[in-house]
Design goal:
Elements: H1 3-15, H2 18-25, H3 29-43, E1 48-51, E2 54-57, H4 59-86, E3 90-97, H5 99-116, E4 119-126, H6 129-138, E5 143-147, E6 155-169, H7 183-186, E7 190-193, H8 199-210, E8 217-221, H9 225-233, E9 238-242, H10 243-252, E10 256-257, E11 265-273, H11 281-299, E12 316-319, E13 347-350
Parallel strand pairs: 3-4, 3-5, 7-8, 7-9
Antiparallel strand pairs: 1-2, 4-12, 5-11, 6-9, 6-10, 6-11, 6-13
Helix pairs in contact: 1-2, 1-3, 1-4, 2-3, 5-11
C-alpha cells in the first residue's frame, strides 16, 4: 500500500461514488476499485459498502479514512518544508558573533537577507570569541563573525574585511583639541579597556604592543562597547574600540577620535566555520550572502549609516521564527559617505 492507494480511497469516500472518484482522479472505474481493494487487504476488513446508490464507509472505514487523511496532510506539509529547504526558501541558521559585530555590523545585513528569504530563521548568539569558537566546533553554531586572531585549530577562517581600532575621548578632553598625539603621550593617559583575560582584551594588548604601547594605565575595565562609550563620555579615560562600534558617535560628535600620529591599528574580521560542516541549501545561501555583504561593508562601498544598537545587555538576539525577538532592522542612510577601507579577501587555514 502506498500514498496513491490512500488518495484514491479518500476520494471514493469524499465523492460517495466509485465513478465520481474516477472522474475526479482521471482514472477508470475498475482501476479505482482495484486501488480500494489494496487498502482493504492491508487492513483485512471491508472498508466501504453500498447504500441506496451511495458508497459509504463502514465503521472500520471511517477510522481508516481519518487516518488516511492525516497521512496525506502530513506528507503534503512535509514535502512543502523539504521543497523549501531544497530551494533555500526556509531553514534555520545559528550565527555566533562578538558583541561589536552582532550589535553594529550584522543587523542591517540580516534585515536584507530576511526580506529576501522570509522563510529563514536566523538566530544570533553574542558571546566572547572562545565561546563562539567552542560552539562552532561542537556544532551548536553554524558560523561565527569574529576578529580573525587566536582562532583555535580545527576551524577555518575566511577573511572578509579589515576593521580599525581607534582611540576615543570625550569632546571636553584636552586631547580632543590636539591636531596630533604621539603614541608615547598616550602611555601617560588613563585608559578604559575590556576586562583582563577576555579574548577582546588579548587582541587589544597585542595591537597596542605592536604599536609600541606594551603597558598602559588602565583605570577602568568594561565589558561592552556601550559601557566603554559612556565611560569615555563621562571623562573617565581614553577608550580603544573598533570603528564599527563608535563611528555613529564620532559622526554625530558625541565622542571624539584621538588623532594619533601612527599607522592605523588594523585587525582582520573573519567568517569562521568548521571545514567538515554539512551545509543545507539555506546554510550555503546564507554563508555566500553574508560573505559578500561583509566584504562590501568593510570595503566602504555601502555608504549606509552605522547602526545604533538597542539598549540592553545584548546577550542574544533572534531574527525570524515564532516567538522571537525581531532584529536586523536596517537603519537610515547617513549624509556622509564613509571613506573606503582596505578589503581583505584571503583564506586563512587553522588546522
Amino acid at each position: 500500500m502506498n500514498l496513491r492507494h490512500l488518495e484514491v480511497f479518500c476520494a471514493v469516500v469524499d465523492c460517495e461514488s466509485f465513478s465520481a472518484a474516477a472522474e475526479r482522479l482521471i482514472m477508470t472505474q475498475p482501476a479505482v476499485s482495484m486501488q480500494v481493494q489494496v487498502v482493504e487487504r492491508h487492513f483485512g476488513v471491508q472498508l466501504l459498502e453500498r447504500r441506496r446508490r451511495r458508497v459509504v464507509p463502514t465503521e472500520a472505514g471511517y477510522a481508516a479514512h481519518r487516518w488516511a487523511c492525516d497521512v496525506l496532510r502530513t506528507e503534503a506539509a512535509t514535502r512543502q518544508v523539504i521543497d523549501g529547504l531544497k530551494h533555500a526558501e526556509s531553514g534555520r541558521v545559528v550565527l555566533g558573533a562578538s558583541m561589536t559585530m552582532g550589535s553594529y555590523v550584522l543587523p542591517p545585513i540580516l534585515g536584507r537577507f530576511k526580506r529576501e528569504h522570509p522563510g529563514a530563521e536566523i538566530v544570533v548568539r553574542l558571546a566572547d570569541r572562545d565561546v563562539v569558537c567552542g560552539d562552532i566546533l561542537s556544532g551548536a553554531v553554524d558560523f561565527g563573525i569574529l576578529i580573525a586572531r587566536g582562532i583555535p585549530h580545527g576551524l577555518e577562517v575566511e577573511v572578509v574585511g579589515t576593521d580599525e581600532m581607534v582611540f576615543i575621548c570625550a569632546p571636553s578632553h584636552r586631547l580632543a583639541r590636539r591636531r596630533r598625539v604621539s603614541m608615547a603621550e598616550l602611555a601617560n593617559e588613563a585608559f578604559i579597556l575590556a576586562p583582563t583575560g577576555s579574548s577582546y582584551r588579548k587582541v587589544i594588548d597585542e595591537v597596542l604592543a605592536q604599536h609600541g604601547l606594551e603597558k598602559v594605565s588602565v583605570h577602568m575595565e568594561l565589558d561592552s562597547d556601550e559601557g566603554l562609550k559612556r565611560g569615555v563620555l563621562q571623562g573617565l579615560g581614553i577608550g580603544l574600540g573598533l570603528r564599527s562600534a563608535v563611528e555613529w558617535e564620532l559622526e554625530q560628535g558625541v565622542i571624539t577620535e584621538v588623532p594619533v600620529d601612527a599607522a592605523p591599528l588594523l585587525v582582520d574580521v573573519g567568517l569562521i566555520y568548521h571545514p567538515r560542516q554539512r551545509e543545507s541549501p539555506m546554510l550555503e545561501a546564507f554563508r555566500g550572502y553574508l560573505s559578500d555583504q561583509l566584504r562590501e561593508h568593510f570595503s566602504g562601498r555601502s555608504g549606509a549609516a552605522p547602526s545604533v544598537p538597542p539598549r540592553g545587555n545584548g546577550n542574544a538576539s533572534l531574527l525570524g521564527g515564532n516567538n522571537s525577538t525581531k532584529a536586523g532592522k536596517e537603519q537610515g542612510e547617513a549624509g556622509s559617505q564613509k571613506p573606503p577601507r582596505r578589503a581583505a579577501g584571503r583564506l586563512a587555514h587553522h588546522r
